Amino acid sequence: MEFDILGPLRVRNGAREVRIDAHLQRVLLAVLLSRANRAVATSVLRDALWGDCPPRSADKVLQVYVHRLRRALGEHDRIAHSRSGYAVVVRPGELDTARFACLVDRALQERAVGELPASRDSLREALTMWRGTPWEDVGEIPALRAEIARLQDQRLAAFEECADAELTLGMHMETVGELATLVAEYPLRERLRAQLMLALHRGGRRAEALAAYDGGRRLLAEELGIDPGRELRELHASILNDLPDLELDPARHRCRHHSYAM
Q1: DSSP class of residue 95?
Q2: Which of 69, 171, 207, 235 has the fewest CB atoms below 10 angstroms from its CB?
Q3: Partners of residue 79 on adjacent β-strands
């Protein structure tokens, strides 16, 4: 069985998609999967399902929902019950977040031994697993907020590693559009902005690279009252002076980059 949460919630048993149509059953499964293999207290599940307006005999109704969910999954032991609450049993490789993390780990190992093209391919494979915002079809559930934020941060970190690899491999033209989209979505994330600036510069769009810096500098000043970080400022100065250090250097493939001159 496979549980996919990096986008709309999806459950598959082999080639067959498991239908879980009732909204509250999907919410229940989503919260259980956010803490896979760990007991979730019934109080947390009640809050996720009904908020401040639980039905009478909420615990009994919850038991009914668990029973229906077990039946939909087709495996009674998939949802365990204990004094601590309920837990969904997920085996190794069944959850897409675990498969995503394994691919990212593999990519980092490949990069560490100088296999940069393979590392880039592993990261791209990991990123294709994302079909949207985690659990985007279950609605706004407070119990999921922290996990959604953690997963989205992991996605951004993986993309930044991928962009590093692609810039080092001379793929600035291929990645510049995606970088521009993500900078617009996460304008305060300086590493993304630096990567966009470098991709634009290497693509012969120096004025746009400088404009990207100015936009970020103004935003940081207006929203946080701070200046860009040292590395972003240094990259801006290098672009402004058209320094040769920013040109592509294949010899750097074997190292992890701690500056933005990839």
Answers
A1: B
A2: 207
A3: 88
226 alpha-carbon distance from chain centroid: 27
Place of tokens 């970080």: 229
The interaxial angle of helices 190-202 and 230-240, nearest 10 deg, is: 10
Written as one string, the DSSP assignment of 44-80 is HHHHHHHTT-PPTTHHHHHHHHHHHHHHHHT-GGGEE
Give the pLDDT of the chain (262 residues) as one tens digit per residue: 999 999 999 999 988 999 999 999 999 999 999 999 999 999 999 999 999 898 989 999 999 999 999 999 999 999 999 999 999 999 999 999 999 999 999 999 999 999 999 999 999 999 999 999 999 999 999 999 999 999 999 999 999 999 999 999 999 999 999 999 999 999 999 999 999 999 999 999 999 999 999 999 999 999 999 999 999 999 999 999 988 888 876 555 444 443 334 4
How is the chain split into domains, by residue range? 8-88, 170-262
Euclidean distance between CA atoms 53 and 56, whole angstroms:
9
Same fold for the pair 8-88 and 170-262:
no
Residue 11 phi, psi dihedral angles, 5° rounding: -125, 130
Q: Which fold has domain 170-262?
A: 1.25.40
Q: For the domain covering 8-88, report its CATH number.
A: 1.10.10.10
Contact 28, 66 (CB under 8 A): yes
Listed in sequence order, the residues at least 6 apart from 28 whose beta carbon sits closer than 8 Å to its beta carbon are: 45, 48, 49, 62, 65, 66, 69
**186-204: burial string, b at 16+ Cβ within 10 Å, e else:** eeebbbbbbbbbbbbbbee
Distance CA(191)–CA(208), nearest Å, equals: 17
| Euclidean distance between CA atoms 180 and 173, whole angstroms | 12
